[in-house]
Amino acid sequence: MKLLSIIKMTVSMEKEKNNLSATLEKLFGLDLRSLALFRVGLAKEVRSQKLF
């Protein structure tokens, strides 16, 4: 029974996180996933520039 309740809680937390993400996207007009991917790409680019 404990495992089932942990799974339910995890699913619930995921839904809340997705709802928050969707709300922020509506408020600020940006796609947070795209922004995160852009930041990761930018960080990789900066790191590769520093290596040479």
Question: How would you characterize the overall build of this protein?
Answer:
By secondary structure, the chain is mainly α. It has one domain. Helix content is 90%, strand content 0%. It has two helices and no strands. The protein has helices at 2-28, 32-51. The longest helix is centred in the N-terminal third of the chain and has 27 residues, at 2-28. The chain is flat and about 50 Å long. The model has no long low-confidence stretch (mean pLDDT 79).
What is the fold's blueprint, element by element?
Elements: H1 2-28, H2 32-51
Could you write a compact summary of the structure shown?
This protein has 52 residues and is mainly α.
Largest sheet: none
Percent of sequence in beta strands: under 5%
Quaternary state, please? single chain
Helix content: over 70%
Q: Give Rg in angstroms.
A: 17 Å
- Anisotropy-based shape: flat
Number of separate strands: 0
What's the helix-strand series? Answer: HH
Roughly how many Å apart are the termini? 55 Å
Q: How many domains would you count in the coordinates?
A: 1
Question: Would you tell me the structural class of the helices and strands?
Answer: mainly alpha
How many helical elements?
A: 2
The unreliable regions are none
Mean pLDDT: 79
